[in-house]
Structures are given as C-alpha cells and as structure tokens.
Design brief:
Length: 377
C-alpha cells in the first residue's frame, strides 16, 4: 500500500486484471494492490462460469463481500478482514481518539459478518494490536503499518499452507484416490490451500493423485470451486454428489479423506463445512483415514469443545434456490421451509491427524494439540 488516492465508489462487476499473487500460488483470494488503497477479490459466487475480479476501496464493501461469500474459506476471510481494516484506516485523518473509535467501528462491522471460522476474529485481534500500537502516529504511517501487518497475515498464511502441505503429503500414498469436501484450496486461503495444499504438495513430490471432490450442498463449493482450481492446476479431479460418498467408500473407491477446518476446539473437535461430519462417520465405518489440515490461526484453545463452536445459520434461499452464474432457480415448492446450518462438528475421535504449520497432531487429542501450542511468553 502506498500513497495512492482511494478509488471512488465502485460499480460491482467492474473487471480488473488479476493481481500478481503474493505467493506465486495459483490464485490468491484477496490482494491489496501496491501503490493504491484498494483490494481486489475474485467473486467466488460466480465461479466457475464467470471469473470476475472486484475492486474494493471501503471497509463496508469488504464486510459485504465476506457476508455474501464473494470471498469465503476460513483463512481467506481473516485476510480479507485485515485488508478491510487497512482501507478503513485510509479514510481517517483525525486524532488518536478519533482513529481508535473509527477503527473499532470497522472492527465490529467485520467481526459480525461470519461467526464460525475463528480466523476472522484471530486476524482482527492481531490487527487491533497494531492499531493500538500505531494510533498516535501520522495518518499515512498508520495506513502503512496496518498495510504491512495485513500483508504479513497474508504471506504467513501461504507459508503455513506450504508447511502443513509438506507434512500431510507424507501421509498421501502414491496413486491414492483422495476425497475432499468443500473448498480448502488457494481460493479459501492466502494461496496454495490447506487440504488442497496437502494434495498439491503430494503432487509436487511426484505422487500421482486422483481427487474426488464432493459437491458440497447447498453452495456447491466442491463442484464449483475445488474442481475449478484443481483442474486449472492440472490435478486429476472428478466430482461426486454428497450422497455418493457412502457408496464410493463401500466399493473401495476412496483411499483417504482430507478436509480443511473453520475452527479446531481445544479437545480437537473440528468445525468444517456442513456434511464433513457425515463423511468422517463413513470413513470410520469403512476404515478409511480421515485427516484435517489447518493453520494455527484456525485453532481456538479458548474454545473447550465442538459443542462450544458457534454454528452459522445462513439464509433458507441458499437451499431453496440453486445459483448458476448470476441467475438462480427455485427448486422447492413455495411455502416449504428449509434449514441451512453452514457447518457441522467432527469429533476428534474420528480424525487420524491434524496437519498445521507447527507440526502434526496424531492421533488428534487435547494432548497432541497442546503439544503444538506456542509456549506463553
Ligand atoms: O462457508 P465457507 O465456504 O466459507 O466454508 C469453507 C469451509 O468450510 C472450508 O472447508 C474451511 O474454511 C477450510 S478453508 C481452508
């Protein structure tokens, strides 16, 4: 971020060339453009039919992008929120007190967008510490310091993905068929991906991997996003509907499962996209290893167990309608209600290993997780 002028109000849908990804990875979910105070994001709701980058210059636009899931995935929404605070700071010229007050308003706006993925609160807490440290400085210095912190959050996430990818790849057999659920890839992170980072690292280590991507109702992140990014990356990927998982496992067509996470509780329970728990139960029944990959920013040691993780309830329309590009079709009769809990919790007992940038917890228990925790200062 430099001294550029903020772009005035943006029309949604304005096309923008994709910025140079920070990591050299395939896609980055959000990127602060150098020399200008705006953030560019790929509108993930439109994939795979439409690849549209949007430019945001105001924190309100970033908050809206997170809650409407233009940007989604636990690490990605944390990174996006951090950049959102940089944009907010760019509009505050006043005193220390005025700055702190306005930043708190922006923080609150971002914090309430999505409740389950702890990475959002983690990133905002980290930015808040920088805000407190630099509040007394000149406006441009504040923006520069916050920009540096947001970029650090972004680049550290990419490094974490690569580190956990290398650990997880060691447990992926050459020639394996790997099932994944939802999208835990470059789109959902700063780049490279968590679960898909493991798959990428296995591929980069010379292993032949075939991926089955469960479609992930209701928003179809598996069919739309995971299939899209792996296919672009030259990794063999095929989509199955969520309801096919049991039959594929029973027929011996799945060797292992790897998913991402939105929050890992202190006892090792894992919240991830709705449907993950069912896949884990099926994997247990069929003796198939079930692994999770997540950065330490997803681990919430203050949260005792999965029962304490807030589960986001999203609108009924995501279930009653199917979106294709920019149009949507109603698939339910008028007058029938739909349920839409966006996440479920997989008990730690069903998980063989959790890969993080700090190491592997296997079997995943409170004890193996605690061993990876940074020691208190
Ligand atoms: O509702 P979403 O699409 O944000 O949910 C995403 C997931 O559940 C991912 O699996 C999780 O965030 C891990 S992303 C590396």
């Amino acid at each position: 971020i430099g001294g550029g002028t903020p772009i005035p109000t943006l029309k949604t849908g304005r096309a923008h060339p994709h910025p140079e990804p920070l990591s050299g990875s395939l896609f980055s979910a959000a990127e602060l453009m150098p020399g200008d105070r705006h953030v560019v994001m790929l509108d993930q709701r439109l994939l795979p039919r439409i690849e549209r980058y949007e430019i945001f210059s105001r924190v309100e636009q970033v908050a809206d992008a997170i809650s409407t899931m233009k940007v989604r995935g636990a690490p990605a929404i944390g990174i996006a929120a951090a950049y959102g605070l940089v944009l907010a700071a760019g509009f505050i010229e006043g005193s220390r007190e005025r700055f702190l007050e306005s930043m708190q308003t922006a923080d609150k706006l971002l914090r309430r967008t999505r409740p389950t993925a702890v990475n959002l609160a983690w990133a905002l807490d980290r930015m808040a510490r920088t805000v407190a440290r630099i509040a007394g400085e000149a406006p441009i210095q504040r923006v520069l310091a916050l920009g540096a912190e947001a970029r650090a959050i972004h680049s550290e996430d990419v490094a974490a993905c690569r580190a956990m990818g290398a650990l997880g790849a060691a447990n992926v057999r050459d020639g394996a068929t790997v099932l994944t659920h939802c999208n835990a890839g470059a789109l959902a992170t700063g780049g490279y991906g968590t679960a898909l980072g493991v798959i990428r690292a296995a591929r980069d280590a010379g292993k032949k991997i075939r991926v089955l991507s469960a479609e992930t109702r209701p928003l179809l992140q598996g069919a739309r996003l995971t299939a899209w990014e792996l296919h672009k990356d030259g990794i063999q990927v095929e989509t199955i509907t969520d309801s096919m998982v049991a039959s594929f496992m029973a027929r011996g067509l799945i060797d292992q499962v790897i998913v991402g996470a939105d929050r890992v509780a202190r006892n090792g329970d894992v919240a991830n996209k709705i449907g993950t728990y069912g896949v884990a139960c099926l994997a247990q029944l069929h003796g198939i290893p079930f692994d999770v990959a997540a950065p330490w920013s997803t681990v919430d040691l203050a949260c005792p167990s999965g029962a304490d993780i807030p589960i986001e309830q999203r609108g009924e329309r995501e279930v009653s309608h199917v979106s294709i590009g920019e149009s949507e079709v109603q698939i339910m009769p008028d007058g029938v209600r739909a349920h839409n809990p966006s996440f479920d919790v997989t008990p730690f007992r069903l998980i063989r290993a959790l890969y993080t940038e700090r190491g592997t917890a296997s079997p995943l228990t409170a004890e193996t997780l605690a061993r990876l925790a940074p020691s208190l200062p």
